[in-house]
Design brief:
Length: 379
């Protein structure tokens, strides 16, 4: 299969696909009019559910396929299935359901992201997670998870300050087996933050959220995270988790680093891509989705994931932050993939995961390709 399209940087590409990979990618010297735009498939490292499907509950085969269909429909060709804080029994049940599924029919799923249970239970940091199920980092538990999940376990979000010595051991042990660690739902600052990074932590999960509403002017988690020169950070570009001015300040600060430290994610829950409001679940939590797209716990009003879709998220990030589309797209595709050690991008030999976009009706997704096959085509 051959495709001629315009890259987000403006160049004209002739792309040849051989089975699941790009065989040849060459740049044309002459311009060509009326071409679609081409960009790498989107990679979302925090997806709690999608298309009406809650990943934090046992799944049917039909539900799994429907979630994949809807993710493809929104340009996502790779994601980390994210499990929030749960009881030990709850995790065991989910692992037993998910492990065979991800080994036998992973489709676009790249593995698991455990957002919990090693988070800070303080009300200022816990977000929508249940504090009674939170625990301190445990090296023995880490070893058990790796025995159960093997290489399916890709990313863990934790709060190192709850037990820094144990957190350092967990991070060092997991890093040796290619598990990545992000800090999140955490008040880690100063020496504690630096110790976690020295042990191997590489990022911060949804920076600016699960943080105190009021904090000291200078001694706060935002400034401490931004001050770390190599620490990546995910932001949720839905305009709800971060107001536009805050998103702009954080995104531009992270993007202007050399190399860029900005990653984008949806933190999607089941309502994302479902096309309706009302009641949904996030594990054992009941979540109310309002007309403005917010997903909140009815009693506390706390945000509980988002209804943002990956394709829409790229363009909202571009608008709110005032950055180039090419940079916003990289923050939602090749950059998170690279953090996971995966080869993605319009490069010979890489998986042929890509999107075709309309240059005239933006944002408009024309098609999504996964491993060289068209998995979504706009009507």
């Amino acid at each position: 299969m051959k495709i001629t399209a315009r890259s987000l940087s403006g160049g004209i590409l002739d792309v040849e696909i051989d089975g699941p990979v790009f065989r040849k990618v060459t740049r044309r010297k002459q311009d060509v009019l009326d071409l679609p735009w081409i960009a790498p498939g989107l990679v979302d490292i925090q997806v709690n559910g999608f298309g009406g499907v809650d990943f934090n509950r046992p799944l049917t085969d039909d539900a799994w396929r429907e979630a994949m269909k809807q993710l493809f429909r929104h340009g996502c060709t790779g994601f980390l299935l994210t499990l929030i804080t749960n009881s030990e029994e709850g995790y065991r049940a989910l692992f037993a359901d998910l492990a065979p599924r991800l080994r036998n029919a992973p489709l676009a799923c790249l593995g698991l992201h455990l957002e919990g249970p090693w988070l800070n239970p303080d009300p200022a940091f816990r977000g929508a997670h249940r504090a009674e199920w939170m625990r301190k980092p445990d090296p023995a538990q880490m070893e058990k998870w790796q025995e159960e999940l093997g290489d399916l376990l890709k990313l863990i979000t934790l709060a190192p300050e709850t037990d820094l010595p144990a957190a350092r051991r967990v991070i060092k042990a997991g890093t040796k087996k290619d598990v990545k660690f992000f800090i999140g739902h955490s008040g880690a600052m100063g020496e504690t933050l630096e110790a976690a990074i020295a042990a191997g932590a590489v990022g911060w999960t949804h920076l600016g959220n699960a943080a105190p509403a009021v904090a000291p002017k200078f001694d706060n988690v935002l400034l401490h995270a931004l001050a770390q020169p190599k620490l990546l950070a995910t932001l949720i570009p839905d305009g709800l988790h971060l107001p536009p001015h805050a998103f702009r300040a954080l995104a531009r600060s992270l993007e202007q680093a050399q190399p860029s430290r900005l990653l984008l994610t949806t933190d999607a829950m089941a309502a994302a891509g479902a096309g309706r409001t009302g009641k949904f679940t996030l594990g054992d939590l009941e979540v109310e989705v309002a007309a403005d797209g917010s997903a909140r716990l009815p009693e506390s009003g706390r945000l509980a994931g988002s209804t943002l879709t990956p394709f829409a998220g790229v363009f909202q990030a571009e608008r709110m932050a005032g950055i180039y589309l090419e940079d916003a797209w990289a923050a939602f595709s090749t950059r998170p993939a690279g953090m996971l050690g995966l080869k993605r991008g319009l490069i010979e030999g890489h998986p042929a995961d890509f999107c075709l976009l309309s240059p005239e009706k933006t944002p408009y997704l024309l098609a999504t390709y996964f491993r060289g096959a068209c998995v979504y085509e706009a009507p």
